[in-house]
Design a protein that fits this description.
The complex is a heterodimer of chains A (about 290) and B (about 325). Chain A is mainly α. In chain A, helix 9 packs antiparallel against helix 10 and helix 11 packs antiparallel against helix 15. The mean pLDDT of chain A is about 90. Chain B folds into two domains: about 50 residues; about 240 residues, MetI-like (MetI-like fold). Chain B is globular and about 75 Å long. Chain B has about 325 residues and is mainly α. Classes of the chains: A mainly alpha (about 290), B mainly alpha (about 325). At the A-B interface, helix 1, helix 4, helix 5, helix 6 and helix 10 of A face helix 1, helix 3, helix 4, helix 5 and helix 8 of B. Chain A: It is a multi-pass membrane protein. Chain A: Its main location: membrane. Chain A: Belongs to the binding-protein-dependent transport system permease family. Chain A: InterPro entries: MetI-like, MetI-like_sf. Chain A: One of its GO terms (cellular component) is plasma membrane.
Chain lengths: ~290, ~325
């Protein structure tokens, strides 16, 4: 990326650049304002939350966080975070394992019905979850799994997130064919080829799957709302729900302190893996 | 695992035909093993539930007593005598029509700006992308409600300009826009995809266009847009399908009930309300099937229209 791409005379490029930077920075300020506001408000003492237009609190009120740590409905924040962690980690494991298995078959093996099944897999990417929601709920209800974490984790082990199968297929297709031909010549069957050659080389796709699964599961609200109803089983997202009904502004401080706590793992993930995230997203849309 | 299979009866012709027969068959078996979790999931958690959901849509079912066959009653009621259903459908359609084009336009504009910005591109790219990950959360939806509420920052800001709204969230005419703005704010994901697409546009095309005397606008219309059309199409399909299913922001902004005056009663919110609050599972299943059909039709229309505006570069 050393070459200057814009084929415009140099002097004009400079002014154009300055303008672009100024515009982008201004846009960023507006865009990131809600996040800054969230953090600032989580530290505001109660009397400043609504009465003051200033972004920064006059003094830091840690009481919002101590209140938030107590949790909701007698369930501590640690418990809520623990529940979220269990579900998200389970979902990550499930998606990484099951999606990479299916992707290997679609990307590298020949079998009858490969075409139609691949088309079916692609079609399920577009399927709204509501079309299968109610029967799935009934099944999990019959199995006595409603109000447990199973309905949120088990489907991931069956590669139901076709988006990630597709993403991994696209990636695996890019791995040179010669590698598994060489492995076959060396006497590797498909299983050994998968574990020794393809899986290690697919690490970027697997990491992308893992990170997105974690963040999306952590953020998910709808399924958790449907499947979990005992406060003990609540996730941090679900606990925030109790603030939805109350529009009383006195709870603003603790509410946003808890919101910050709920966002923290995502922010950390984002900072640690932003390169993978951005590139993983980019690779899903380009190339076919 | 084991070494290559020895073939003790080493008559060469027999061995060859054995290899010829066995090699593909063994691969076939392996493929089904690798595919088995997905196959099980597709059968048990996708295809069967779809059929069951179709069946349930013709019944009255409250989860506790056996489903009672009512024929087309759910659908008839939905289309002819349930104003809230229509309200939710119209709200969702309005929202899709407002949020998706604006979000994509913004994503494309910012991607174009970043593509020619040079230094600092990586930083901007990540910063603009951040809302796409955070924005789907309940936390941000709560922030949104507070910002647009009566006395919230946006409201206060507007009143300093003499525009007194009394909170967007409480105004039936404006609450939908608040939800749409939250979606538009998350333009980072399509932007990143646009940016990746822009990097694949061959530079020679711009040079050729310039030699032909094409100005900025002309180059954008004749080079960038056609070359970007597959990516634009991908974003359009993906964002449209997602937008039809929006739930969390609508739930949160409206205090969980789709208010004020049902103005943020989105399709999925009403589906949740019918199925899981009012225990009309059959009705909810019928709603889900209509949603499925509508999304199918919209996607098909997009695909059909794409023939006339999506340009596929064979070179790839």
């Amino acid at each position: 990326m050393v070459a200057v791409r814009e084929p415009v005379p140099r002097r004009r490029v400079d002014w154009g650049r300055v303008g672009l930077h100024a515009g982008c920075l201004a846009a960023l300020l507006v865009m990131l304002y809600p996040l800054a506001w969230l953090i600032a408000t989580s530290f505001k003492p109660a009397d400043e939350v609504i009465s003051s237009l200033r972004l920064l609190p006059s003094r830091l009120a840690m009481s919002n966080y101590t209140t938030a740590l107590e949790g909701v409905g007698g369930v501590s924040v640690l418990r809520l975070i623990g529940n979220s962690l269990i579900i998200s980690t389970g979902a990550v494991l499930g998606n990484v394992i099951s999606c990479s298995l299916a992707a290997y078959a679609f990307a590298r093996l020949r079998f009858t019905l490969r075409g139609p099944l691949f088309a079916l897999m692609l079609a399920t990417i577009m399927l709204p979850q509501h079309a299968v929601l109610i029967p799935q709920y009934i099944v999990f209800n019959q199995l006595g799994m409603v109000n447990t974490f199973w309905p949120l984790v088990l489907p991931k082990f069956l590669a139901t997130d076709a988006f990630f199968v597709f993403l991994t297929v696209q990636f695996m297709r890019g791995i040179p064919k010669e590698l598994d031909e060489a492995a076959t010549l060396d006497g590797c069957g498909p299983f050994r080829t998968f574990f020794r050659i393809i899986l290690p080389l697919s690490r970027p796709a697997l990491i992308t799957t893992a990170i997105f699964t974690f963040i999306w599961t952590w953020n998910d609200f709808f399924l958790q709302l449907i499947y979990l109803f005992e406060p003990e089983k609540f996730t941090i997202t679900l606990a925030l729900r109790s603030f939805v009904d109350t529009s009383s502004q006195s709870a603003y401080g603790p509410m946003f302190a808890m919101s910050v706590i709920a966002l923290l793992p995502i922010v950390l993930f984002f900072m640690a893996f932003q390169r993978f995230l951005v590139e993983g997203m980019a690779s899903s849309g380009v190339k076919g | 695992m084991s070494a290559p299979h020895p073939r003790p009866d080493a008559d060469s012709a027999a061995a060859e035909s054995a290899a010829g027969r066995n090699r593909p068959r063994r691969r076939e078996g392996a493929a089904w093993v690798f595919l088995s979790p997905w196959l099980l999931g597709a059968a048990v958690l996708t295809l069967t539930p779809m059929l069951v959901s179709l069946y349930l849509s013709f019944t009255e079912y409250d989860l506790f007593t056996a489903p009672k066959w009512v024929g087309l009653d759910n659908y008839v009621h939905m289309f002819t005598s349930d104003p809230r259903y229509w309200r939710s459908a119209v709200n969702t359609l309005l929202y899709v029509l407002v949020a998706v084009p604006l979000q994509l336009a913004l994503a494309l504009a910012v991607a174009l700006a970043l593509n020619s910005i040079g230094r600092g591109k990586g930083f901007y790219r990540s910063a603009f992308y951040a809302p796409s990950l955070l924005g789907a959360s309940m936390s941000i939806a709560l922030v949104w409600r507070a910002l647009f509420n009566d006395g919230g920052t946006v409201d206060d800001l507007l009143s300093t300009f003499g525009i007194d709204m009394g909170g967007w969230v409480n105004q039936p005419g404006w609450a939908l826009l608040v939800v749409a703005l939250l979606t538009i704010w998350q333009f980072g994901a399509p932007m990143v995809i646009f940016l990746a697409g822009l990097q694949q546009v061959p530079h020679e095309l711009y040079e050729a266009a310039e030699v032909d005397g094409a100005g900025r606008v002309r180059r954008f219309l004749s080079v960038t847009l056609p070359m970007l059309s597959p990516v634009l199409f991908f974003n359009l399909v993906l964002q449209t399908i997602q937008a039809f299913q929006v739930f969390t922001p609508a739930f949160t902004v409206s205090g969980g009930r789709g208010g004020p005056a049902d103005s943020t009663l989105f399709y999925t919110l009403y589906l949740y309300d019918r199925g899981f609050t009012a225990s009309h599972m059959g009705y909810a299943a019928a709603m889900a099937w209509v949603l499925l059909v509508v999304i199918g039709i919209v996607t098909a229309l997009l695909f059909r229209s794409s023939r006339s505006w999506v340009f596929y570069n064979d070179k790839g």
